[in-house]
Amino acid sequence: MKFPAKLLLIMKLTAVILLASVLQVSARTAAGQNVTYSAQNERLEKVFTAIKQQTGYVFFYKLPDLQGARPVTIDLKNEPVKDALQKILKYQPLTFLIEGNTVFITPKRAETVDTRRSDDGLLTTAQQISVMDVHGVVRDESGKPAAGVSITIKGGKTIGVTNDNGEFNLTGVGNNAILVFSAVSIETFEINLSGRGELVLTAKSKISLLDEVQMIAYGTTTRRLATSSIAKIKGDDIRKQPVENPMLALGGRLPGLQITQVSGIAGGAVSVVIRGRSSLGAQSDPLYIIDGVPFAHSLTSVLFGNAVSAQTLGGLISATNGSSPFVNLNAADIESIEVLKDADATAIYGSRGSNGVVLITTRRAKSTRTSVDVNFYSGWGRPTRMPQLLNTKQYIAMRREAFNNDGIVPTASNATDLMVWDTTRYINWAKLLLGNTARNYDGQIRLSGGSQQTQFSLSTGFHRETPIFYGSMYDNRVNVRANLVHHSIDNKFSLTLNTSYNSDDNNINTTDMGQLLTAIPNAPYPFDSSGNLVWSDKGISFSNPLQYIKKLYIGETENSISNINLGYRFSKNFEIRADGGMNIERLAQNTTNPVSSQSPLGTTPIASAQFFNQTQRNWIAEPQAEYTRQFGKSRLQVLAGGSLQQQLTQGTTINASGYTSDDLLEEPGPAATKSVTDTYTKYRYDAFFARVNYNYDNKYLLNISGRRDGSSRFGPGKQFGDFGAVGAGWVFSEENFMKKFSFLNYGKIRTSAGVTGNDRIGDYQYIARWGTSSAALPYQGVSGLYPINLENPDFAWERNRKLEAAIELGFLQDRVFVSADYYRSRSDNQLIGYTLPTQTGFSSITANRNAVLENRGWEFMINTTNVKMRNFTWKTAFNITIPRSELVAYPNLATSSYSTLLVIGQPVTIRKYLQYQGVDPTTGIYQLNGINLTTNRTEIRDLGQRLYGGFQNTVTYKGWSLDVFFHVVQQSGLSSINFTAPGGRSNQPVTVLKRWQNKGDITDVQKFSTTGAPVTQFSYYSNYSSARVVNASFIRLKNVSISYEFDHRVIQQLKVASLRVYFQGQNLLTFSPYQNGDPETLSFTTAPIRMLSAGIQATF
Amino acid sequence: MKYITKILLHRSAKIRYIFMVGLLAAILPACKKFVTVANPPDVLTTDKVFANDNSATSAVLSIYIDMMNDQFGSNGSFVCFTMSAFGGLSANELQWTQNNTTTPSYLEFTSHSITPPNTYVQAFWQDGYKYIYRTNAILDGISKSTGMTASGKKLVEGEAKFIRGFCYFYLVNLFGDVPLVLSPDYIANMNMARTPASQVWDQVQQDLKDAKQLLPVNYPTAERLRPNSATAGALLARTYLYLGKWPEAEAESDAIISSGVYGATLPALNQVFLKQSTETIWQLQPVRANTNTNEGVSFLVTGATQPSYQITQNLLSAFEPNDLRKTTWIGFSSPVANPTWAFPTKYKAGTAATVTEYYIVFRLTEQYLIRSEARAHQGGSKLATGISDLNIVRNRAGLPAASPTDQNALLSALEHERQVEFFTEWGHRWLDLKRTNRAQTVLQPLSANNTWNPGAELYPIPGAEIGNNPLLLQNPGY
After folding, report:
1. Distance separating alpha carbons of residues A1006 and A1003, to the nearest angstrom
2. Are residues B290 and A673, on separate chains, in Cβ contact within 8 Å?
3. Labelling B196: which of A48, A191, A229, B233 has CA 20 to 30 A away?
4. Which tens digits make up the pLDDT trace of B335-377?
5. Nearest Cβ partner of A602 from B190, B291, B301?
6. pTM
């Protein structure tokens, strides 16, 4: 219900008059019309009293209304009452009306105008006063003041500009004037003043790539003013992809960021590498920071054969090669992800920044309007590629041919599958084991709103995925999050609170069922008529692949992150902040091995179970002080602060066995025998850091940062290290001589250099530790003590020297934005788990090596707005990265344990192979240049990515929006093969049918055989030959997203603020020469899922 | 707090800033302390381990525990199961009947064409050196210990030396020259080349002689789970036998037999592998939950099922008629349809709630056969006593006394007797054929396609080890 402004005014005045009798009233006859008065910090009431005495005007006001008034400092010389009052009340939240000799003082009407909605609060009623003063404040969506916004009368002159607090004061503005607010940082908007004297405006941040806020360490910047290399993806772009793990949505999106999906199974690990692996031995995962809290800082790292490593939660062995900590991160809560790459951006993280930093910022309330956002989607999926295996007829033929080739007569002893089992029976294991349709469901509710000072956002939701495996398995997540932002009225004090809790419940099998496909096709049907597992057929035992169905896996991860940022601004120039955060990550796993899942044919089955519990408690405290000073065209910003961080990880593994019933396996209690092993690590870290940022006229930019760091991972005397960086930028487009090139609206050259470090090595490695033996039973009642590691108190930081140069250009008012980066980083003092020959008693030791490893590369990015019309836009984003790595130096490589792996001058992602020379046309056996693994591995193959990138097109037409994204990778990878020689008692992909059969055959698959030289040769071929390395490049249509936003009419009828439906497809098409599997996971068993989903989003 | 607020809000910016800097400076020294974390509560540092007899003993026990718990080989460490199973495959006692799911590692043993990457070969090497490192660390630790008693030191030193000798005995047999690592210093050890086998053998003898002196005559604890002086003597007797030191071998074995500790007569066949067997010289206690020995777990088969480790026809036909060992120590899962489905049943308990069988490392029967063989080689008057030693063993097996007529006949009778007595036990057959230089002659004809790689008497140095230490040179033939 809205009243015309005039009516409101009258109502208020009436109320005031009625109240006047009970309020303080001063009445006296007029003595004079003009006022001469001066005061310093005088209370307003006193001022009124003084005027009353001089002029005889009577003042009517409510005492509470004056409580918000400011002290008055004024100097009036013979001014008419009206002018005097205007000056006095100019900056007060009060206005006045003179009726005869009476002055009515009333509060100014404050209107909250959300310019993002065209119909908001625009009042059109004519006003009595034709010219008025206006006071107001402009804030951005996050509630931060928007400084430097210029205010113009539409079609006229500029009449004001907002100060650092976003405030402005206008005098003598026509009450029906249309004001235009514009600035570099916000979308230009207009309001009709409609006689309002007090305005609180929310501006929409300008969607200009250049001036978008970018998160950096302990602050923000913009692309225009950054001296460092930062890649950013917005939450909206992540949410276009129906993936559980937000990291998966980044593949190909950001230059310099290499994302590899390690497993297609829900909850699986994802490898994230920024600008190449910087370390030979220490972990190369980036540092993740969520709202200022380091997340999953040092979890287990899983290394894979194809030189991919990924961060995982560790724990019990599961099908996904570990589970990613990011399954607990809800894509719906992400505002943006910024990836910090170069020294300038990362050196302030000191010893932790060497591998780059991923800053994850969560969403917060954007306006004071209370809104509820509801989103739901559901999808259906199948693997991108399914393996084709031999059917029974082909398999039996293969086996017979193999025995024939070997000159061995198949008997009931050596060929039970041929001679004992039914050779016509056919079980299609792929269909049975991997025949389900994967499903996902995701539902989220967000509530946000607040007042001018305080905004809040609350969200909750769930996500569920089910795999393609036989049986009913799932991965469920629930998430709850709260965000609170508060600013004091004077904007001096600010507070941000984020707290979230996520819980993931995964019961997906411990074994990737894809690995069981090599079960032979004429094996018995896995279940008998009463549904029990079958373990033998005609006396021949059968390792039933579906035994894993009976073996439960329950993995629960809980994650809670809370952080609070307090800020107090002492003056315009000086602010102190205190950031504190906590992260608790709890992992509870249970795997069971019930009697029903074990063959009764060997020894007596015993029911057993394993339990793993791990809690990681992480806290960080970071006091900071920031000094900002503008003098002339120079702007200086100095930041200093400290970090204290602790991470305590405690874990327990319980091996329990001897249960009396399969039904008791979910708790260790009922087990007859239990053995417990513990893990305990405490990591502490502290630092002092400082940063000086200098900006001259938005033209010359300089950024210097430094950090002194201590880490508990190093021995006494080695704990501290110094790191730092310098970055510089020149926005040459601001130079006068560039102004004539009007097509180029932005151009910047920037460069940076600096040193970061790496301490990603296990805790306590410098102490020789003895632990308690992990056996279930003690020896004669006594536990053993065994040495855990070799002692090396001398290792220290790995250092990484980074260099970067880049050029950024914006053409045609940013319609075309181009950037090119060259980077080079050299890490030395390599901190590695140095592989030892086991004659030392251990297989590795933590040590520094003088090896120098270089990563360098080019990153290119082009963003274009191809078409921009009222109803139709078409935007294209393209990025590509060409990474190279090189082992520059490695003293005594030839005698080291890396001699068989690395070559100086070659990438570190190489492997050495025996030279594959094809199948011998005469013997039909794989030919290699020799089988001496020390001397014959002469072939060098690089398994690293040679090029990667992405290509995105976004088209909008009215309410429609279409997004199409391609992910491109050029790489070599290991072919996925079955490790049993074709001909053995194991099924094979259909590609083996190309095998050698007769003398003279030229083919790539050797003859079928069950024994002898072909089998030995196959072992070398499959594990060590260059034939394993194939072209695994791919172009993947990774995402197509179509959405439709309903127009106003529909929305109004449905009484919603907005309504959107969408369809998303993930991993839709893959173009690759890679055979037998997916080129990203390099395996035919765990291909990524091709997911189609549909969803609806409504805002109320 | 009030004053801090006052200063923080002080009108002069200078004072505010000075206060801030001062505050930071005050925190600085605390910084170093903060990142010095205490040792984790669940581990001990080396000095603490050797601070007293109890924890030093625990360090020794960890070796026995891991010997029974390690799972690097097929199902166990080289000490438990791996030596028996893979030695059995190499000596054509066993054949592997199941899928080779990863690489053809099992087949490589039976076809005598092991490849250096074979991970099971690495099990012997890796386990052996892992235990050797511990013995070296223990010897180093007790030498620096101030808290241990003299008797405690003596016992721990004896056990460590015995275990070191025991590990080197198997390493030198399987691989020939091996690096002779005698200290825990990894920097010295990581680039050590192979030491000539003769030096390794010398060290084995030295360690065992020392251990024999250091260890007590009585077992240090209940049962025979930790070595005594005779245990070191038993391996010393075998070492002398392998080195052809006949009188020494005879003397060592004779000392054990005549001590009377291990019974006047051999126990019945079905008693030999029970934990209370009287003929046991050294046994190890199973440490896995609800499990007896790994042999029991892995060899035994229930119902009419093909065994995974199946006894070869060659071994089955080696038994003389009425040999009780064939009926007591071998099981048949399908005697009618498939008489070849045979499997070892020396150990008769696999998984079970209670442990009835211990892992038998040395037993008295071997000492009889060592003494017999040592006497046979010395010939002359000792031949007769040698024959009576042999017949003690045959007698227990229900066989008539043998009466070989000369030295050679006795020696070949002993070779056969050892085959049927020690089958699938500790790789005895494989090492016997090797030490008598009969491996190729006997085994090549038995393998599929008659394969025999020249030099197959020795296993290859594991490929990964050469990769990590280029100074290791591969055995000939690989």
Report:
1. 7
2. yes
3. B233
4. 555 667 899 999 998 888 789 999 999 999 999 999 999 999 9
5. B301
6. 0.79
